[in-house]
Amino acid sequence: MYTYEMNVGYSAMDASLRMTIPAILDCFQDAAIFEAENGRITMEYLYNRHIVWMLSSWQIVIDRRPGLNERIRIATSPYDFKGFLGYRNFTLTGGEGDLIVRAASIWTLVDIEKRCPAKLTPEMQDAYEMAPKLAMEYAPRKIVLLGDGEEQEHYKVRKYQIDSNQHMNNVEYVRLAMEMIPEEVTIRELRVEYRKAALFGDEVTVGVIKAKDKYQVVLRDTEGGIYAVVEFTTDHAHIDAGTIFS
Question: In whole angstroms, what is the distance from residue 35 CA to residue 53 CA?
């Protein structure tokens, strides 16, 4: 298991002086990269072999979000591999030693030249330090849409949203989706299903579905193809199940 610690800075806060969900995701993303760069399967190792780990899904359960200047510890470890899929857990521990955020993620190893999944080699699998699967209730990777979200917003992918894989960074989809969620709700669980990558200059349309205690934000291309589905489970249901925002 790889861990690192930090104090939560003001730049990671929202208006309530609590760490934003995208900032938490940034920490998890950094933890996975730090582990790689301190091990044998570095980004250089992957790029030299024309392969890359692509995030397929997130499931993040939030008991509470850290406050300003709170000392936190972020941890990550893979717990399983199946063919071209990798399964990885993340945790965030608060300043009093309490586990406040738990996460599960699924990654796909992709051959970036052939543009298809690549099977994990024994050399790679042996290089990862495995840990037991985190105790939590695991949701399916795929998110079932609860309706047909009406188009609400248009975004164009900016340069600052592009990462080293030359597509929009995984966290940016969540940032866009969170713009559609009322500020007064408390988000207890976040799920993301990534279907295809958005590139610099692409136009992203956003639709929102509300059903019971869930908001689903669907990010699509101009032809209707889905980039990602982001689902938020909240403490509050402001409208009746099945109602769609338009």
Answer: 13
At 99, list the tokens. 């586990």
Which residues, in sequence order, are CB contacts of 224 under 8 Å at separation 6+?
none
Residue 237 pLDDT > 60, yes or no?
no
In which band, very low, low, confident or very high, does the pLDDT at 148 lie, cut at 50, 70 and 90? confident
Which residue in 178, 147, 213, 174 sits closest to 57, CA to CA? Answer: 174
For the entire predicted model, the pTM comes to: 0.91
Which domains occur in the chain, in start order?
2-127 (3.10.129.10), 150-234 (3.10.129.10)
Residues 6+ apart with CB under 8 A from 85: 56, 106, 107, 108, 109
Q: Rounded CA gap, 174 and 21, in Å?
A: 8
Choose among 156, 149, 164: nearest CA to 244. Answer: 149
> What pLDDT digit, counting tens, does each position of 35-77 carry?
999 999 999 999 999 999 999 999 999 999 999 999 999 999 9
- As a whole number of Å, the end-to-end CA separation of the chain is 45
